[in-house]
Amino acid sequence: METCWEEAGWERLAPGVARRRMPEWDETVGVVVGRADILVVDTGATLRAGAELRSGITRLTGRRPTRIALTHPHFDHVLGAAAFAGCEVYGATGLDELLRRERETLREDAIRHGVDRDAATEAVDHLASPHHLVCGELTLDLGGRTVLLANVGPGHTAHDLAVLVPGRPEVVFCGDLVEESGTPQAGPDAIPGHWPAALDRLLALGGADARYVPGHGSVVDAAFVRAQRDELAARFGVSG
């Protein structure tokens, strides 16, 4: 029987695929369920949020998550990762070095955006570094279901990872390369000149009929991603 995700506050996107819009920062967390493994896409902004996600997914599926994909290195997407003890963690090439090098920056960014100081410090002290780095594409077999991890950046950051879940419909977790609830945020670690090209790669990955899941906001279609790509190109003066 298909898990009733909606009753637990999740949005079902396809069979065995769901996402949750977290409170406070509206960041998306995704889950993909296979027969052998459960992949979580991003982990929330604190260890407490990560622990609640882990226990909720375990209740819904009867199994503990086993793998995590981090779409990019911002606090609201990575600081809950250490709550998923025993999971294999995947990220774009270079993410491991950045998380080691920028721990204090990550902590201060979380505090500046409203995370309790002690909670931010605890999460950074236990920060989970990726075990597997993706350069190009990597296919994961979750047991009766494959998932493609694609290093489509740089753009929103230097380490943007997308997650494609084949099926009907195909689902693409975009991280903050795509945002629906507001204008895409280009912080000091963004690479604006490459962002439109990253969205071109994202569209090529998912195709015209996929459901695109932004890092913040409602699920969108290819036309929305294409329009946002064009807006970013105009905003940053990128031709093509």
UniProtKB/TrEMBL annotation:
Residues of the Metallo-beta-lactamase domain: 26-216
Pfam families in the cross-refs: Lactamase_B
Protein name per Swiss-Prot or TrEMBL: Glyoxylase-like metal-dependent hydrolase (Beta-lactamase superfamily II)
Organism taxonomic ancestry: Bacteria, Bacillati, Actinomycetota, Actinomycetes, Kitasatosporales
